[in-house]
Specification:
The complex is a heterodimer of chains A (about 110) and B (about 110).
Chain A (H helix, E strand, L loop, with lengths): L4 E3 L2 E4 L5 E6 L6 E8 L3 E9 L2 E4 L8 E7 L2 E6 L8 E8 L6 E3 L3 E5 L1
Chain B lengths: L2 E3 L4 E5 L4 E3 L2 E3 L6 E7 L6 E7 L7 E2 L2 E6 L4 E6 L8 E8 L5 E3 L3 E6 L1
Parallel strand pairs in B: 2-12
Antiparallel strand pairs in B: 1-4, 3-9, 5-6, 5-10, 7-8, 8-9, 10-11, 10-12
The chains are: A mainly beta (about 110), B mainly beta (about 110).
């Protein structure tokens, strides 16, 4: 099992540019989560999907952030336009049906200059 | 809303010692799950141990064990015979209804040789 796969691992961009982060969950998992980690705010849940449907997006900071899950094997988190305060590590995680445990990807470190 | 509190931002112990990390949480529910995750410098989030609230027996995984006090809403992690590889950030997390995971702010643990 390849685990949760995220890309890119690192991204450096300039303020105002569009950023797209990608995630492939573990096959067979039916829930997918996007978290953001910063020193100041720790790990924050941005949005999660159940069976490809967004269930709770109350953690999405503002309209510049959007997330999609077009099918069970792929999700994107988009920031447009990006700002320096969006700099963080973004984690994707998928959830097993039986144990409830979240399996995390290696994260995407975003730096907005 | 559920909250998770880790009152120890940093801890440091000598190799082979035993260390206990504290965690308290706030919820009005009776059925939930508690987790400890480890985040080494590689930033990968790794599940250490899991506890179901309906189980009175404390979970144990090799050198890792928990002291789950449901009435006190306390969920501490004990690491026995600590090793250099245990150096990491440790996050306590709460999940209700097998859905979203709420994390504490983390404890940075350093194992000294």
């Amino acid at each position: 099992d390849a685990g949760v796969i995220q890309s890119p691992r690192h991204e450096v961009t300039e303020m105002g540019q569009e950023v797209t982060l990608r995630c492939k969950p573990i096959s067979g998992h039916n829930s997918l989560f996007w978290y953001r980690q910063t020193m100041m705010r720790g790990l924050e849940l941005l949005i999660y999907f159940n069976n490809n449907v967004p269930i709770d997006d109350s953690g999405m900071p503002e309209d510049r952030f959007s997330a999609k899950m077009p099918n069970a094997s792929f999700s994107t988190l988009k920031i447009q336009p990006s700002e320096p305060r969006d700099s963080a590590v973004y984690f994707c995680a998928s959830q097993g049906r039986d144990t409830g445990e979240l399996f995390f990807g290696e994260g995407s470190r975003l730096t907005v200059l | 809303a559920q909250t998770v509190t880790q009152s120890q931002p940093e801890m440091s112990v000598q190799e082979a010692e035993t260390v206990t990390l504290s965690c308290t949480y706030d919820t009005s529910e009776s059925n939930y799950y508690l987790f400890w995750y480890k985040q080494p410098p590689s930033r990968q989030m790794i599940l250490v141990i899991r506890q179901e609230a309906y189980k009175q027996q404390n979970a144990t995984e090799n050198r890792f064990s928990v002291n789950f006090q449901k009435a006190a809403k306390s969920f501490s992690l004990k690491i026995s015979d600590s090793q250099l590889g245990d150096t990491a950030m440790y996050f306590c997390a709460f999940m209700q209804g097998a859905q979203k995971l709420v994390f504490g702010q983390g404890t940075r643990l350093t194992i000294n040789p």
